[in-house]
Design brief:
about 450 residues, mainly beta, Porin, 60s Ribosomal Protein L30, Chain: A, 2 domains, 12-stranded antiparallel beta barrel, 5-stranded mixed beta sheet, about 45% strand
Length: about 450
């Protein structure tokens, strides 16, 4: 346990050091603040781009994200000559994200948004811009899923925005952090996923900054929705809408409305099982604060782990085992070999087990890692005798259907061969079947879903 805690602490401290080492100095502003950044990629890297799903990162799984977005005509102005055909300002923003799963229903994350560059072509009239580039805020978030599973459910997301901009008129002098509470719901049907978020933004604005035209913002309603489709080419097509509505009057005279809405359409391509590439664009639906005429974005998510198990202790469940009418002393270890169900068939009960602990070398049927312990556990469980053992191999969707089918068959054969050679089981009683990617149990559109789909299942008839 101490070793696992040290691994977690080392991974977390390294992550914080990496992010802090590349964050720019604080930005300065005169009329515009971090509210000019409506594009906020999620820290988990799951399912969508800026919209939360109820799914959380699994314990010990880390996601690192880097997103660039280029927005045209998103700065506030106080005149009416800004048209879509007349580009007056541009912003290039960067978001550095990190997320980690703590339990099966709880993950946390941090975002470090920055302004890399800006361009203001027309400086006539009253308008807002950043006085310098750099870090604009620190965003912390925590998601709790209280109902459902990885394919559907409900969750609550709590987050805080800590302003890093000096003289931010939309926050005011002496402002406290902004806090957000959102309700999340989503569902997945086949290759289509749909999600929606609705929430409230609690602001604690300071006093109006002397000489500023804008007033500090008040509380807001926030909303977003998304739909995605997973294609056969390891690519998701994602559409999103997000926006906000004022919950109270701030006597704002800005020509940009305090109500805003924006739409995005993009692609998420899983380059490898760990690395995902995002590209896409969007436009305003309502000309609100920080809603651009056009937006182009790109990003990377790199996910790895698990580095540790759940931070909450879990009781080891070892179900009673009966073989041929007699109790068997050893029971299956759920950490290695999960017992799923016992099905009644015409030929008697059939027990089903699943494991993700048997790993293979890339493009190979050579087992590596913890496979010996898993198969030793299975062999102990079988010592009371059995009629038939079926070994099923399953893969994720990276690669072609035919390739995955052949690979899963080779790997199922390798397990059968090991059980026969190592433990002298009768080869006629063991059947190996490869199903490839045809029977997923999780979303192939993200890292941890693919990890769950790369599995071995056993059917046992005594």
């Amino acid at each position: 346990m101490q070793f696992k805690k040290r691994r977690f602490a080392s991974a977390l401290s390294g992550l914080v050091f990496f992010l802090s080492s590349i964050v720019s100095p604080h930005a300065r502003a005169n009329v515009v603040g971090p509210d000019a950044q409506n594009f906020n990629p999620i820290t988990s890297g799951l399912d969508f781009v800026t919209v939360q799903s109820s799914e959380t990162l699994k314990p010990g799984i880390f996601n690192l994200g880097l997103f660039l977005n280029y927005a045209v005509n998103s700065l506030p102005y106080f005149e009416t000559n800004q048209q879509k055909t007349q580009f007056n300002d541009t912003l290039l923003g960067l978001d550095l994200n990190a997320g980690v799963g703590l339990t099966n229903f709880w993950d946390v994350g941090i975002s470090l948004p920055q302004i890399l560059s800006q361009s203001v072509e027309d400086t006539s009239g009253a308008r807002g811009e950043f006085a310098s580039t750099g870090s604009t805020e620190i965003r912390l978030n925590s998601k709790f899923r209280f109902l459902g599973d990885d394919s559907h459910g409900f969750a609550v997301v709590l987050s805080g925005n800590f302003n890093q901009i000096q003289n931010n008129p939309y926050a005011g002098s002496g402002a406290d952090p902004t806090f957000n509470a959102e309700a999340v719901a989503d569902t997945t049907i086949g290759r289509v996923a749909v999600g929606g978020n609705v929430g409230y933004r609690f602001r604690s604005p300071g006093s109006k900054i002397a000489g500023s035209i804008a007033n500090p913002l008040g509380n807001q309603w926030i909303f977003s929705g998304a739909v995605s489709y997973l294609t056969s080419f390891s690519t998701k097509v994602i559409g999103e809408i997000f926006g906000s509505l004022p919950a109270e009057d701030t006597n704002e005279i800005d020509r940009r409305s305090l109500s805003s809405a924006e739409a995005l359409l993009g692609l998420k391509w899983d380059v490898t099982t760990n690395l995902a590439l995002h590209v896409g664009g969007g436009t305003e639906l309502l000309q609100g604060l920080a809603s651009p005429d056009y937006r182009i974005y790109s990003g990377l998510n790199y996910t790895f782990g698990p580095v540790f198990h759940s931070i909450l202790p879990t009781a080891s469940h070892r179900p009673p085992v009966v073989a041929q009418g007699h109790a068997v002393e050893e029971a299956v270890d759920d950490e290695l070999l999960q017992q799923l169900t016992t099905e009644q068939t015409s030929n008697g009960p059939v027990e089903r087990f699943r494991t993700q602990s048997i790993l293979f070398e890339f493009d190979s049927d050579k087992m590596v890692g913890n496979y010996a312990r898993v198969l030793e556990e299975l062999a102990k469980f079988l010592k009371g005798g059995f009629v038939e053992l079926i070994v099923e191999g399953h893969t994720d969707s990276i690669g072609s259907d035919s390739y995955n089918l052949k690979l899963s068959q080779r790997r199922a054969n390798a397990i059968k061969r090991y059980m026969v050679q190592k433990y002298n089981f009768d080869a006629k009683k063991i059947t190996a079947i490869g199903y490839g990617e045809s029977r997923p149990i999780a979303d192939n559109g993200n890292y941890q879903g693919r990890q769950l789909n790369r599995r071995v299942e056993f059917k046992l008839r005594r």
